[in-house]
Write a structure and sequence with these properties.
Elements: H1 22-42, H2 46-58, H3 62-69, H4 75-98, H5 104-128, H6 136-154, E1 158-159, E2 178-179, H7 181-223
Antiparallel strand pairs: 1-2
Helix pairs in contact: 1-2, 1-3, 1-4, 2-6, 4-5, 4-6, 5-7, 6-7
């Protein structure tokens, strides 16, 4: 529902229709790293795959910052930037899942949330011209998840589990040793759920205001 790089300040920027901006080129290059990541992963180049994913994730803030600082915020960038963040997120969780280092429920939760935000945000913009401003916990959620996935891909060092449960689908809480990255994933998931609730409430409030204005306008027209 919101771009990870959009802030209150960015809403005051003049949005252009330019396609070839420095920020958009960076976003496109980040997208090109996704197939490179999977090729390395499927060829058992785990360290190289981790480095590629970490680089793509670490430049998450770069395109948005450049667009704002150079006053080249574009309509394409507003769509491309969050879409690539979602693609990177899904790619990371899929990569970790394919290496059997993360339980299925986490991949379902991450993919479902990202699909909901992407589709919901597109509908809000297209039908109602509503853009929900991002909050910093949303950015932190993405950062924690990216770090967690990179740690799980690297798979070292391994930490002993807490031994609080015997279930296999809660790595870290059971007795099995696992990567330190799982704890970053858990924190990221908690923040992701909280921010998703916030975005839904914010969108609902904006829709109520929009409908109220529509009813008010209709009443005024009838009065005339």
């Amino acid at each position: 529902m919101a771009s990870h790089h959009q802030t209150t300040q960015s809403r005051t920027e003049n949005v252009t229709n330019r396609v070839f901006t420095v920020a958009n080129v960076i976003s496109f290059l980040r997208l090109c790293l996704v197939p490179v990541f999977f090729v390395l992963l499927f060829n058992d180049q785990n360290i190289a795959a981790t480095l590629v994913f970490a680089f793509a994730a670490a430049t998450d803030f770069l395109d948005g910052q450049i667009a704002r600082r150079t006053h080249t915020v574009s309509r394409l960038g507003q769509l491309l930037d969050p879409a690539i963040d979602r693609i990177l997120m899904v790619s990371g969780v899929l990569g970790v899942f394919l290496m059997e280092r993360i339980p299925l429920w986490i991949i379902i939760l991450v993919v479902a949330r990202d699909a909901f935000l992407l589709i919901g945000g597109a509908i809000l913009i297209k039908r109602y011209h509503i853009r929900v401003p991002v909050i910093y916990p949303g950015k932190f959620a993405t950062t924690f998840l990216f770090i967690g996935f990179a740690g799980l891909l690297l798979n070292m060092p391994l930490l002993p589990g807490l031994g609080l449960t015997d279930v296999s689908w809660l790595p870290g809480f059971n007795a099995q040793s696992c990567s330190w990255g799982i704890w970053f994933v858990y924190v990221g998931l908690v923040l992701a759920i909280i921010t998703t609730i916030y975005y839904c409430v914010s969108a609902y409030k904006q829709l109520k205001v929009l409908k109220a204005k529509g009813r008010s306008s209709t009443s005024s027209d009838k009065g005339e």
